[in-house]
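Before any further analysis, backbone shapes were mapped to integers, which produced the following:

***
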Amino acid sequence: MTTRSVLTLPNPGTKAAPAKFKGGFAEVKDFLKHYEKLCDYHNLSSEGEKCESITQYMSRHISEFVEGLSSFRSHSWSKLKVDILKYYDVDLDTKCYRFKDLLSYVKTTRGKKIPTLSAWKKYVRGFIRIGGWLEEAKKLTSEEYASYFWEGIYKKLHIKIETRLMANEPDTDLSEAFPVDRVIAIAEKLLHRDRFDADLLLSEVETESESDSSTEENSDVSTDSESSESETEFFRKKKKANEPKVKKETKTSSKDKKAGITSPEPMDEMEGLIKRMNTISLDDPDYALYYYRATQIDPTQIDPTIKEMIAAPILKRGNNNRADYKPNNAQNGQSNVRQNDNRNPNYKGPPPGTRFYNPPNTPFNERTCFGCGEKGHGIPVCPQVNKLISDGKLQRSARGQIIRPDGRSIRCLPEESVLEAL
């Protein structure tokens, strides 16, 4: 005969082994009971062997947690068992109902019809499930148990049972609740499936259902299947209330999907704004609007140096009335490309034949920049000038001129750029 020992314990996953414990509070108690029975059967008397062997029946992260407990390292099985029950919330399994759960169940069932024996037994099962646990936990006295059991019965059946009780025992003390066993016995007789007048009784119940439908709530039902749902419905709602709430993800509006509306890509939007800004002057009211929209685009979606190349708008002082606004060059039919004369009305421009002279109607990509001396852009969008401004080495005045950080102007020779004059 094979001697049972720690070596004869069933391998994890086999029929005799306990189901792998994954941390559920409803499983921990049964898991420990099953494991202790295995230990007794295989003669594991050493607490160290019990502690070492239990981890093979646990999931990986559970076993790592158990191995970190001081009770496991000290090979104390009694303390380890207490720790496992403590940290895996066995209280959630043993303390499953409260007094308000019983009140909620009674309020739900007292308005539901009980026309058949099946519906009655469902009511009794549901009440015993909650009330019996509360009474066992000393949270409900036997008198309160009987009182709430009586209170949860549908009112018409309530009257019939009380009439039968008083007829059998006229001297019953009404200061105390009717015994639950007597109430159940009378209800089962009244709702007996093999009564000689069962068909007549059902017809009477259906008639009462129709006559009461005009005065009772719409939730009252007359059929067996609907009236017997009170227990199932209660526990379904309770389970749903205990489930963790998951934050819902925001979804795109169905109207936007139908219309095919999609937000533009950040780079496409930035390119469109820059094209519009290059056709108007810095003091144009629309330029400030485009500038604001460009600065609000997510910087992680575009090249960050692009925003540094955009010139800030020139804010007008004094009266901003739209009626007093003078149209810019584009509205006068002239070239709409930004030039220095848009920033300084007294500026006449460089003389013809000089380095920075740009004939009228010269395309933007062929103009020479006053800031760096290179072609292809103007000083408002000059990368080198805007880099010095962002570093604090230069600044832009309210009129759009490039000046020193202390406010002094930069004096340039006729053929000299701003960067060459520094």
Notes: Residues 164 and 170 are 10 Å apart (CA to CA). Confidence is low (pLDDT under 50) at residues 201-228, 249-253, 255-262, 318-343. The first helix runs from residue 28 to 41.
